[in-house]
């Protein structure tokens, strides 16, 4: 097993195998992930829920992502500062046989207590590296248009916008564009 990825002044980034190899961390991961996701959504974050998700829903999501990672169909990264989970992110391969070489970066979530410390960038960069290693050709994601910090981060890491659905997302009586972005990793492959 590889050693955890660390940033000298930042978090330890565990992959799914490292996370599940530590029984104590594995046992508390879904509850810790739930706290982060529920707090962020409760504050209006754009993570795919209109209301904070329930603990059971997050536990099911975590189980699904861990199963996909074990099967080579996804990657999970968990950011820890000491014993505390402060962020998580994952991508999943597309299920259709014609698009298995592509994956969707579905969530990057960082506790509001540590925003601005580069944890989102570390998670995203590491998940991109995981996608390259898994021979993903195109990594996609979608973001609510008012999430300008995330959009700026993704652009700085090489993602480009390839589409937009105007007024697609409805939250709290307001509507937002849904922005689709992609990172083409095919140029990273050596010629055969």
Descriptive keywords:
192 residues; alpha+beta; Aminopeptidase; eight-stranded mixed β-sheet; 5 helices; 8 strands; globular
Structure characterization notes:
This protein is an alpha+beta fold and 192 residues long. The protein has one domain (5-188): Aminopeptidase (3-Layer(aba) Sandwich), CATH 3.40.630. 34% of the residues lie in helices and 33% in strands. The protein has helices at 16-21, 23-42, 55-70, 119-133, 148-156, and strands at residues 5-6, 12-15, 74-81, 84-93, 102-110, 138-144, 160-171, 174-184. An 8-stranded mixed beta sheet has the order 1-2-3-4-5-6-8-7, with helices on both faces. Helix 2 (23-42) packs across helix 3. The protein is globular. The two termini are 29 Å apart. The relative contact order is 0.14. The mean pLDDT is 92.
Distance between the termini: 29 Å
Radius of gyration from the alpha-carbon trace, in angstroms: 16 Å
CATH top level label: Alpha Beta
CATH architectural designation: 3-Layer(aba) Sandwich
Largest sheet: spatial strand order = 1-2-3-4-5-6-8-7
What's the domain count? Answer: 1
The stretches of 5 or more residues where confidence is low (pLDDT under 50) are none
Count of strand segments: 8
The CATH topology comes to Aminopeptidase
Rough shape? globular
| Percentage of residues assigned to helices | 25-40%
User: What value does the average pLDDT take?
Assistant: 92
The CATH superfamily appears as Gcn5-related N-acetyltransferase (GNAT)
| Percentage beta strand | 25-35%
């Amino acid at each position: 097993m590889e050693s955890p990825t660390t940033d000298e002044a930042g978090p330890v980034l565990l992959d799914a195998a490292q996370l599940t190899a530590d029984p104590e961390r594995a046992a508390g991961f879904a509850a810790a992930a739930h706290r982060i996701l529920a707090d962020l959504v409760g504050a209006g974050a754009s993570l795919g829920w209109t209301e904070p998700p329930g603990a059971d829903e997050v536990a099911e999501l975590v189980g699904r992502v861990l199963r996909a990672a074990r099967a080579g169909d996804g990657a999970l990264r968990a950011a820890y500062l000491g014993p505390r989970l402060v962020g998580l992110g994952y991508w999943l391969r597309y299920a259709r046989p014609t698009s298995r070489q592509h994956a969707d970066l579905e969530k990057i979530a960082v506790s509001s207590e540590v925003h601005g410390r580069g944890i989102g960038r570390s998670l995203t960069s590491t998940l991109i590296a995981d996608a390259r290693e898994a021979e993903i050709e195109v990594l996609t994601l979608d973001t609510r248009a008012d999430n300008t910090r995330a959009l700026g981060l993704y652009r700085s890491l090489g993602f480009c916008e390839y589409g937009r659905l105007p007024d697609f997302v409805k939250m709290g009586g307001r509507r937002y564009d849904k922005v689709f972005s992609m990172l083409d990793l095919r140029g990273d492959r050596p010629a055969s």
